[in-house]
Amino acid sequence: MTLADQRWVLLDTDVWSVLFARSTRTPDARTETWRNLLVGCGLVIATQTKAEVLAGLAINDLGAKRRESILSQLAGTSRVPVTEDVIVAYADLTADCKRAGHALYAKQHTGDRWVAATAIAVGVPLLAGDGIYAGAPGLEILTDSAH
């Protein structure tokens, strides 16, 4: 994976789950908007997202067929490993959020900070379904207005 070859977007766990793991019987109204935003983009996830998806599979009995489908989708999604750059970005983001009083600093958002730090470290925008990332220092967020 070479991020310079095309425009890449890092998907937060909620977006990846809606686009690739959600049951078609329970559609999400955001799906079409997100798919339109991602046209022509390479998709990548953080290691944190892979861990969260695997934890969800370990906790929830979704049946063998659905589980295999999700694992197949996960295996086919490019992932950014935790590198020294990601670790430094995480430390800097944590400190910057604390100084700024940003909600992403809160302990319950540790996983979200890892996702954001991954996007910052590799220099790609983040697409997320929740607002916790808004205004996070150094983070580019993909939105309707940014496309």
TrEMBL record:
Among the GO molecular function terms of this UniProt record, one is: metal ion binding
User: What residues form the membrane-spanning segments?
Assistant: none
Q: Does the keyword Metal-binding apply?
A: yes
UniProt cross-references to Gene3D superfamilies, sorted A to Z: 5'-nuclease (3.40.50.1010)
Q: Does the keyword Nucleotidyltransferase apply?
A: no
What is the required cofactor set for this protein?
A: Mg(2+)
Q: Which domain of life is it from?
A: Bacteria
What sequence ranges are listed for the domain PIN? Answer: 9-131
Q: Which UniProt keywords apply?
A: Hydrolase, Magnesium, Metal-binding, Nuclease, Toxin-antitoxin system
Q: Which family does it belong to?
A: Belongs to the PINc/VapC protein family.
Q: What is this protein called?
A: PIN domain-containing protein
Q: Which organism is it from?
A: Occultella aeris
